[in-house]
C-alpha cells in the first residue's frame, strides 16, 4: 500500500511543484518556508523562526535579510522586549501566497474535473484522514502550515503538532 501511495502521489507532488515554480520565482524554497512560517506566526522572533525551520539562527537571519531587501518581510521592535525583533509579512508577500494557492487550486481543479465525483470525494476523504493520522503519529516534526480549504486559516492539531516545511507536498498541506 505504501509503495502504491508513493507512486500515485507523484502527480500531486508535480502539481505542488509546478504551482510553486510558476508563482515563486521571486523567492527561493527556503525563503518561501520563512514566509509561510511568518504568515502562521505573525510577529514571530528570529530565534523562534530558526527553531521552527530547524536551522541555525545566522542562516535564518540571512534569509530574513534577503526577504526584507526583496520587500517581502518587515522587522519591527518587539512589543514586550524592544531588543527583540518581530517579523511581519508585507502585502507583497501576502499576494505571493495568494497567487501560489490560486495557481495550485487551478491545476487541482483541472485534474479533479477528469475524475468521477465519487472518486474525487473518496480522495478528499482519504487525504483528510491521512493528514490527521500523520499529525497524530509524529508530533515531533517542526513546521508546515496547514490551511482549511474553506477560509485559508492556518490550523494546528490540538497537541500543536506541526510538520517540517521541507517535507514533500504529498505529506503536507501548505
Structure notes:
The chain has one domain (about 1-170): Arc Repressor Mutant, subunit A. It has seven helices and two strands; from the N terminus they run αααααββαα. By secondary structure, it is mainly alpha-helical. α4 packs across α5 (about 55-70). It is about 55% helix and about 5% strand. Mean pLDDT is about 80; it is low at about 140-174. GO terms for molecular function: DNA-binding transcription factor activity. InterPro entries: HTH_MarR-typ, MarR/SlyA-like, WH-like_DNA-bd_sf, WH_DNA-bd_sf.
Quick recap:
The protein is mainly alpha-helical. It has seven helices and two strands, in the order αααααββαα. Helix 2 runs antiparallel to helix 6.
Could you outline the blueprint of secondary structure elements for this entry?
Elements (H helix, E strand, L loop, with lengths): L1 H7 L1 H14 L5 H12 L5 H8 L3 H13 L3 E5 L7 E5 L1 H23 L3 H21 L37
Antiparallel strand pairs: 1-2
Helix pairs in contact: 2-6, 4-5
Organism: Micromonospora endolithica
InterPro entries: HTH_MarR-typ, MarR/SlyA-like, WH-like_DNA-bd_sf, WH_DNA-bd_sf
GO molecular function: DNA-binding transcription factor activity
Broad structural category: mainly alpha
For the record, give the distance between the C-alpha atoms at the N and C termini, rounded to a whole number.
24 Å
CATH architecture: Orthogonal Bundle
Could you give a short account of the major beta sheet? 2 strands, antiparallel
Using the coordinates shown, work out and report the CATH topology: Arc Repressor Mutant, subunit A
Strand order of the largest sheet: 1-2
The unreliable regions are: 142-174
The H-and-E topology, N to C, reads as: HHHHHEEHH
Average predicted local confidence, pLDDT: 80
| CATH class category name | Mainly Alpha
Which band does the percent of strand residues land in? 5-15%
- Based on CA atoms alone, the radius of gyration comes out at 17 Å
Q: How many separate helices? A: 7
Number of domains: 1
Q: What does the overall shape look like?
A: elongated
CATH superfamily: Winged helix-like DNA-binding domain superfamily/Winged helix DNA-binding domain
Pfam families: MarR_2
Protein name: MarR family transcriptional regulator
Organism: Micromonospora endolithica
InterPro entries: HTH_MarR-typ, MarR/SlyA-like, WH-like_DNA-bd_sf, WH_DNA-bd_sf
